[in-house]
Amino acid sequence: MNPPMTPQKYAAAVREALADLPARDRDVLLEDLDEHLAEVAAEPGMSLEERLGSPEAYAAELRAAYGGRPSGGGSSLGGRLRERMSGAVRRVHTRLLVLPPYRQAAVFAPELRPAWWVLRGYAIALAVLAPISAPGLVPGDLPAWVFTLAVIWGSVWLGRRGRTRGSRWSRALLLGADLLAAVLVVTAMADVPSTSSRGVAFDYGPRPDVYAPGMRVERVSSLGGDVSNIFPYAEDGTPLHNVRLYDQDGNPIMLEPGFDQEFVIPCDGEPPMRNAYPLPLRPVEHRADPAGPEATCVPATPAPTDATASATPSASPSPSPSATPSRR
Amino acid sequence: MDSSQLLKGVLDLAVLAVLAERDSYGYDVVRRLREVGLEDVGDASVYGTLRRLFKAGALTSYVVASDEGPHRKYYGLNDVGRSLLQTSAKTWTSFAATMNDLLKEVDPG
Q: N or C, fewer C-beta in 10 Å, chain B?
């Protein structure tokens, strides 16, 4: 039988068996191993190996007991700060563990991690693609899909590899990516209503001559494309004129006339209200002289539609005569 | 059932309980655990557990120099450790009660 190992030799063998840990973690873990082994060796009767088993087995047991994530730390300011932070977090965590719902959530949370890896890869891929592809919450084309799947694969790979591996910088980078992805996901979710195709978007009036915030309605009809005018009818089929539409907050509901439509502005009298329907629109004429006055008014008689003729005072700020026909 | 398997789950609690009694250094913790009947407890497991609990902020530590023999690193509970011990003990007590209840009718022979 070999001569019994000295504590120093035994400790060296244990260190070697834990060589794959980052040096920093290993040092923290094995800080006072020599003293400890010397203490054990001082017990009479058995050798270290008889008492503790092989150094390799000892190292494996040590590793298991220390847990999967020997965090850094040490004497640096960042390390101390992190230690205090994790201490504080743990304290709160420990207190909260008294509450059964928190306990259940704490048990359940780790199961959601793979889902987060996928989501985080997806969010980051879309963020990278955003400047070069069509806006949206799904990749636009096949290359975009391939790229997205590749990023998700990478994200999952990183997640499965675990946080313990890698340098401090790569962990910090990963944490940054996590935060970025979280922000992206939250903003994307907050954005969904305004990016949907049935958008009813708030607007501060189509032109500066309307001061009250108004509603601009786009694409409310799902069949025929853009809505550029509204024709109200009474129950008995009589067409109605000059019907004012307001939203729930009292803001006028306004439509954008299409590219080929312009407002008919009477020469005398007030300009048409932007929320009195049907709107007095007419097709845009191609002007012979582009340098000439942009807007041409029409004499009150004969008006193309009698909606323009009535100019009743209204509660909303009255639009001042505008030289520019509204179009976009 | 191997009692060392059971021990793994409650080693933290056992170590905290021993340290709640009085501050100890690593090998002393091992010895005291064995004295109370946890003979299967592994030296490395205790050592690793102490290091982990310390890193987690549940323990304080200080080195005591000794004239004969090596310097000893003593560990003791701080507030975090005490509250951890309290919640873990509560969990264990209710778990043990449940198990006892379940095994009431079983004759261990």
A: C
